[in-house]
């Protein structure tokens, strides 16, 4: 009798853990266990199985606190297992610095490793960056975590930042380059950018921060497009809030239109440089194409052709405006070319793109392997299907 009761209690505890895991995976509030799941179970037991539900339900603790404890216990177990495994194996790590709605900086670390001949990717930790988001601060957060968990730094075999490894240039990732764009602005364009940021701060101070995204990174990625789309409405809004800011914004409308169009193009490239199917060959093609477009934009805008700048084309652009934008595009081109020199100058052998082509021009060392590959009919079909699907 005692053994039977003990077994039922263990089963209830096991069910509590399993349901808590489902709640955690769904992202639903922890209170859903007590408010919805238990009443649903009770209804199923009474209506379908015709069994008294109260005795069974009492053995499945799903209160808010119980679910929280179960999730914490499972998280701790998973983290301990993961860290113990990483202590004895090599792995790659991806670091992603993100900004929360309250402007707090969060560092996320993901690890990829091989276990039982399968590749796994797991979240290692999420830590708040208390001081700043400099490289040194990020390194110390990572180092302190590794020391705490006794994971040797020497087990790291590769590191990627700001997304896929191919997004990383000589110094920083492409997203970081977006932040850098503001630093190569002329004094005039920097002042125009600053006016937009001032408006964001005005919204935040007056509890209108939901009107526009207001962190600096988000202004560079999304905020400008939304800001310019609401430009006339914003001027009306400022008429009662800050008339001086309104007048300054009206004077810089062409600059804001230019920056909106330019950052939109950066966003398009940023999206292209994401995804699991990205590789160095595709990355070089994307970056080379963008660099060529920047050069073309500079030439076209220099002769008064604004078709590549739809917002700017609808403004009254003067000769001194054109000169400012040409100089800025020239600076963007030069800095972009220097920053991604390692990828842009990378030589890609033809056999990598088409291993079934002419092998006579390839390196003698790999000719034998390519010859064997070229006669493999099964791989030919797979290669053809992969090429047709864009893989």
Written account of the structure:
The chain is of the alpha+beta class and 391 residues long. The protein folds into four domains: 2-68, no CATH class; 87-161; 177-344; 350-388, no CATH class. The protein is 60% helix and 10% strand. The protein has a four-stranded mixed sheet. A hairpin with a 5-residue loop joins strand 1 and strand 2. Helix 1 packs across helix 4, helix 8 (216-229) packs across helix 11 (253-272) and helix 9 (231-238) packs antiparallel against helix 10. It is extended and about 85 Å long. The relative contact order is 0.06. The model is unreliable at 163-179 and 206-221 (pLDDT under 50).
List key phrases describing it:
alpha+beta, SCAN domain-containing protein 3, 391 residues, 4 strands
Give the structure's gist in a few sentences:
This protein is 60% helix and 10% strand.
